[in-house]
Amino acid sequence: MTPVTDPRTLTSSIDLPRHVGIIMDGNGRWASARSLPRFEGHRRGVDAVRRAVRAAGDLGIGYLSLYAFSSENWSRPPQEVDDLMGLLKRFIRIDLADLHKRNVRVRIIGSRIDLANDLNDLLNEAEVITQDNTGLTLVIAFNYGARQEIVDAVRKIALQVASGEIDPRVIDKHLIAQNLYTADIPDPDLIIRTSGEQRLSNFMMWQAAYAELVFLPLQWPEFDAAAFDEALRQYGQRERRFGGLANVPNK
Ligand code: IPE
Ligand code: IPE
Ligand code: MG
Question: Tens of pLDDT along 145-204?
Fold first, then answer.
């Protein structure tokens, strides 16, 4: 059978999600199972990031969001936190030119306050250089937490209310969505998590309201185009109802 990542067969075989989010989990367990240091799992995880971005671009998916570091991941040992910061820097330094060449638009979401200046500068550079690209939008969730994102949005709105700029009666779900980090990004249709864990771990909790969730029983360093196909296949079998009724012909 031809894999669905073959763009010639894909559009006719399944309904493609516009936005796919991935909770990239299991780097540590992948390494431990091979008696390797956790760092090796994270390093190999970056290769899986490259495969995921390439597959999403080949498929013509509009938005790919990758959860790379959560606001709770600071509670890991300082060496591991440093390693993860270093790997992000290395990824941007090495891959930015190639991403740009492939028309990828890079967006970084999450809090920038606790990040080192050199990392912040690199993240800004990646966004600025690629901002006019029209291919895949690659959203990297780094130092991201959905609860903090909602807190930030509420604070922004409260300040506008306090200054008289807006009337509290106009606050609705659209205004809240417009004040999230993802204001200009559609909600994810599909969220994939590797490692077998079945939870969101503070990823896009507002935006995931109607996302289809697919949990893959492999570790993130093992993720490849075939795993992406499998998630898309499962997504294609779901019936999205958004609180309405199943797609039955009108009587
Ligand atoms: C995912 O792998 C990477 C990050 C969360 C940064 P983990 O490091 O969580 O790997 P496990 O879950 O311990 O196996
Ligand atoms: C979620 O994975 C965060 C990222 C993938 C960046 P974790 O490994 O931190 O999640 P928990 O702790 O198992 O919920
Ligand atoms: Mg984990």
Answer: 999 999 999 999 999 999 999 999 999 999 999 999 999 999 999 999 999 999 999 999
Residue 194 contacts residue 25 (beta carbons within 8 Å): yes
What is the best residue among 23, 24, 25, 34 to mutate for testing ligand 1's pocket, by most ligand atoms within 8 Å of CB? 25
CB 204 within 8 A of CB 182: yes
Between vectors from CA 153 to CA 192 and to CA 173, what angle results, nearest 5°?
Answer: 75
DSSP annotation string for 99-142: HHHTTPEEEEES--TTS-HHHHHHHHHHHHHHTT--S-EEEEEE
Q: Which CATH number do you get for residue 227?
A: 3.40.1180.10
How far is the C-alpha of 89 from the C-alpha of 118, rounded, in Å?
9
**Which amino acid type is present at position 249?**
P
Please count the structural domains in the chain: 1
195 lines ligand 1 (CB under 6 A): yes
pTM of the model: 0.94
Maximal CA-CA distance, the chain? 63
